[in-house]
Every structure is written in C-alpha cells, then in structure tokens.
Protein: Protein-methionine-sulfoxide reductase catalytic subunit MsrP
Amino acid sequence: MPIFHVPRINPSEITPNEVFLNRRNLIAGAAAAGLAAVLPKGSAAAAKLDFAKSPLSTDEAPTPLEDVTSYNNYYEFGTDKGDPAANASTLTTKPWTVAVDGLVARPTEFHLEDLLSSVALEERIYRLRCVEGWSMVIPWIGFPLSEVLKRSEPLGSAKYVAFETVVRSEEMPGQKGLFQALAWPYIEGLRLDEAMHPLTILAVGLYGETLPNQNGAPIRLVVPWKYGFKSIKSIVRISLIEKQPETSWNRQNSGEYGFYSNVNPQVDHPRWSQATERPIGTGGLFAKRKPTRLFNGYAEQVAHLYTGMDLRKFY
Ligand SMILES: Nc1nc2c(c(=O)[nH]1)N[C@H]1C(S)=C(S)[C@@H](COP(=O)(O)O)O[C@H]1N2
Ligand SMILES: [Mo]
Structure:
C-alpha cells in the first residue's frame, strides 16, 4: 500500500490535446467529409439545448470542454481516464427510458423525449470533486431530480432513492471479460431529502449541448456536494425504497467508500488525504493543488441535512 497517493498520469496531460478525439471532433470531421456514417447507429449527434441560467451556478471558470470530455471515470468502458472517450461511442442512447418505481403512487416509465419536453432545462455550473483527489467545474444542463420524483408521488414509507445504470455488455466493454472492475449494474443511492434537494439534478447536457456518451448520456445524476462516484451515469431505473440501498463503491470496499460520501477535507480516505485537490485542465501535471472545502463548498445549502450526524462515522 503506498504511503502517498500518487495519481496516475493521464495521457491527456502529457500528449497534445488534439490527439484526443472527442465526439464533437468526430462529428465535425464527419460532417466536413460528408460522412454521416461515422456515427454509430443510435448514438445521437450533439444537439444544442435551450436552457435558462441558474442562480445556483458558481461563477468559477469552467474546466475546458476538452478536459471534461477526455478525462473521465466510467468503468463500464474501462478504468483508464481516456477509456470512456475512446470507447463510449458504442452506447446506443436512443431510444431511452427511465423507470421510476418502488414506493410511489404512480410507477412510471418515462421516455426520455417526453420527459425532456415537459421540464425546464437550466444550466448549473457546479464544482465536481472526485474521491481520487482531482476536481473540475462543469456547466451541466439539467433539471431538479425532485421534478421527476414528485410526478411519481412518493409514498410516506419511501425514505431512500436507489439508482441503476444500464447493463449492456455488448456495448460496454468494461462489462465483459475476465477482469471486471465492479459488479454491474453500477448502483447508487441517496436519502430522500438529499434527492429532493434543489442542488440535486438530472443532467442531460453540458456546455449547452446534449451529454457526450463518456459523461453519462443520455441522462445522469449530479450531486455536487458529494464525491463524484455518487453522480451515477446513464440511468435506467430510479426506485423509491424504505431501507438504505447498496451502492457500487461501498459494496466494492466499504472501509474506503461510505454511503454518504460527502466531500470533507477533514475526513481522509484511508489511503490518501482529502485536504486538497488537483484542478484538472489548469497547468496539467504541474497544476497547483487547492484546498478542498467542506461539502465541496455547498455547506451553506446542505449542512443542515446532516445536523447531529458524526461525519466521520457516516463517511
Ligand atoms: N455508471 C457509472 N457512473 C459513474 C462512474 C462509473 O464508473 N460508472 N464513475 C463515477 C465517478 S468516480 C466520477 S468522478 C464521475 C465522473 O463524471 P464525469 O466523467 O462526467 O466527469 O462519474 C461517476 N459516475
Ligand atoms: Mo470519482
């Protein structure tokens, strides 16, 4: 076990960015060459979204799009930071449905297009802090998760919300083969009050356009005061339940990853400090680390959710 956590060097930090093809380059290139066929079937071209700005956005400078779309964690497509950008174009994101079920008066299977035509999209520029010690600022486009939950009318007995990512091993290379990084589906959960909090959103886009596949297209959760792994990608099921659900990283290593996983500079990971973070996209390898903030800087809005709880015990 290393005494210091030495972050793995990402190829995007030592190679000119242009080498990395993201979906937009691919689409622009294909369009220029008149090659619509370059896009895999069912993977949607990036489309512009209509949205309003939100007072809940930070005014910090967003991480460049190039970094947001080439430095990713999405183990269904591989465990290296560049794997999702390289492999995720195979995921078919159309058509897409999200089931909302469990302890609700109206279990519903939403077709994504119907859902999108009935919500008001907002831009939410949020800080994202990964448990690994790096961070970004991402201009998400989405809407409050509470909108969807309310439509299904949660029963009084519902205390938690469980989320599931799609399982599709023919399109997700990380889900097949001998070595499986995690058990599938990827699962996550929130307490109902966390899920209903106005900062908690379902994102369908970033930088004004539909989500790139590597960022969790077509719909993913964003919970900005918690470590990034809570923000589950490519959601197909949302279940209202009574008991605290299992979560992927807690199931994998419960001593290192808790259910709550609120960003907290005073509660270290067993193998590394959480006191500081490395902003991605600002100076590459030699970027200066900056202090990590309690609840990722959202304490004013969310600290009340945890009154009286020992944050070391409920990590
Ligand atoms: N289904 C799924 N969701 C996931 C992950 C994953 O591996 N699979 N990784 C998580 C982690 S560790 C982080 S930091 C964020 C990264 O989101 P981004 O790539 O859009 O920045 O996604 C989270 N959601
Ligand atoms: Mo993460």
Notes: The radius of gyration is 19 Å.
